Amino acid sequence: MSVGELRDRMVDGLLSAGAVRPGPVADALRAVPRHVFLPGVDPATAYEDEAIPTRWAEDGRPTSSSSQPAIVAAMLEQLGVRPGDRVLEIGAGTGWNAALLARLVGPTGAVTTVDIDVEVTEQATRNLAAAGAGPVRVITGDGAAGWPDGAPYDRIILTAAARDLAPAWWEQLAPDGRLVLPLALRGSQRSVAFERAGRDVLESVSIVDCGFMPLRGELAADDPIRPLGRPGLFLMFEGPADPAAVLAALDAGPAVATPVDVTRLDVLTGLRTWLALHEPAAGDLLALRDRGPGPVPVLVGDGGLAALAPVDEAGTEVRGYGTAADALAQRLIGHVSDWLAAGRPTSTRLRIRAYRAGTDVEGPTIDRRHTRFVVEWV
Q1: Do β-strands 233-236 and 282-287 pair in parallel, antiparallel, or remain unpaired?
Q2: 209 is in which domain, residue-wise?
Q3: What pTM did the predictor assign?
Q4: Which residue, of 108, 137, 144, 323, has the fewest CB within 10 Å?
Q5: Closest by Cα among 351, 372, 345 to 204
Q6: CA distances (Å), origin 293, targets 288, 290, 314
Q7: pLDDT band at 59 (very low <50, low <70, confident <90, very high)
Q8: Contact, 72 vs 100, CB < 8 A?
Q9: Does residue 83 sit within a domain?
Q10: pLDDT band at 51 (very low <50, low <70, confident <90, very high)
C-alpha cells in the first residue's frame, strides 16, 4: 500500500469514528504527510491512529511525540482555524501539527511554533523543510512566555498539558481569539477550547477527552508526576505521597477487589473527571512505556491506594492496596455510585471558566498560581 493510500485510510477511519468532520481539517490531514515528520518510522506505523513518542527523559517519561491523529484532528476542529489567521502553537513536537496549521491558515496567515527543547525545534525545522510545508516560524523558548513578536494571535493551541494559564497567553490572545489546550485538573485531562466572556474571563465553548505529556518550563514547576522506581511507571498526584510506599502496596497485590458497573469508556469520558472534581485524593497511575489501557484513576492515602482498574476490554473493578485498602476502596466505590446516580455525566456536560488568580467568584473552584478555574457540570 502506498503512503498516499495509508494516509487516506487513516483519514477515512477518523471520519468514520467522528474524530474529524468533512472539511478543512480532514483535507489538511490528507495533504500533509505524517510519515515525513517521523523519519525512521515505518510509514504503516506512522499512519496508525497512535501517538508515537520520539524523545524520552532519563526516568522513562516521554518528552516529545507525534500526537495521536484522532486527538490532533479533534483539537484542530476545536481550534476552528480560518484562512489568514495568526496562530501560536506551544509544543513543536515533530512539526506535523504546525504543518497542518500552515495548511489551514493558507498563504495569508502565519504560524509560530515554540518549544523549550532546542533539539526538538531543530528536528521540527528539518521535518517541515523535508515536507515542503508552508511558512512556519520555529522558535526555541519557554511556551509560558508565548511569542510576543507575533501577537496578537487569533488562535493559540498547546500540544502539552498545562495545569495553569500563563499570563502571556491572556495578553497575546486577540479579543475575539480562541485558546485550546489540554487542561490538567488533578490528573484528569480534557482539551478545552476557551473564548473570552469578558476582559478577564475565559469560558469553555468545547471540551473533548485527551491525554498529553505535561508542559515543561516555567509552568512545570509543580509537576505532579512522580516516578515510582520502575521504568515507565508513574503516579500523577497533587498531594503528598511516598512513591516507595505506593510501589510496595502495588507489588503486594490487591487486598480487596469489587466489580463496578462501569466500562473503561465510562472511566475515560466521564468518571475520571468526576473523581478529579470531587476528590482531593484523586490521581492517576501511568504506565508510559506500554500500550496498556491508559491512565488508571486512583485514590491515594497514607496506608495505600484504591484503583479503578480494567479487568478486560470493557469492564472495571475497584481494587484496594495496602493497609488502608478497604477504606479507600469503599470511598472510591462511593464516588462511582454518586456518578451513576447523577446520570453518568460525560465531559460534554462540563463548563469551565477561567479567571485571574484571586478573583472573587461563585462556584466550585480549582486554584492555580495564575488562574482560578470554576468547573461545573451543566
Answers
A1: antiparallel
A2: 3-219
A3: 0.87
A4: 108
A5: 351
A6: 11, 9, 10
A7: low
A8: yes
A9: yes
A10: confident
